[in-house]
Amino acid sequence: MKRSAFGVRFAHLIPFQKILAAHSFTWLGIQTMFVYMFAYVQQKIEGLSANQMGQVVSISFLLFNAIAAILPATVLQPLALKIGRVKTHLLCIGIMAIGYAGIWLFGHSVNIIYLLMCVVGIGWAATVSLPFAIMSQTIDQSRMGMFMGLFNLSVVLPQLVASLGVGEAISAAQDKGLIFIICAISLAISAILWLFIKDSQAEVDTKGVTPSGH
What we know:
globular, single chain
């Protein structure tokens, strides 16, 4: 199967550059949700006062963060030992993209939003626990400080884009469902880019000798 010109070029980037690109799109989607979710709830959930809308958003983020607090040690770490960190992260980012698409399509009641925020919390759990570990296996450890600074750009720059460029589009849009369309597309692109990234040989070797319970 012939790859696209973009696919060929992206495949030839060094692993660190691939991780930065994939992680940037993750953060673009997540930051868009963080900043504009209130506008979505305000338009899509009828009959709520300002205080009630604030409560819906607060509970949504509480569930989102609770999933992210529980899953890394209980689910993601054991899964990463079996299939690798990159595949684990790719799976979670794909689930997050589906969750965002679900909010866009079906998020017209409070309970559905709460349920789907738990789904997207799976991707958040991976985002706060796996990319740095994946990145640290691909770089020269003696230059960790420099690479950490560059890695942080994959968080900061998407936040600026979401707050400025994306904000103009959302402000102009009559249908605030655009918020979660942007989130879903950003996470889908991120998942596609993670397909081009492989676990480092050091991690593969370590995973290969990890004692198994079976």
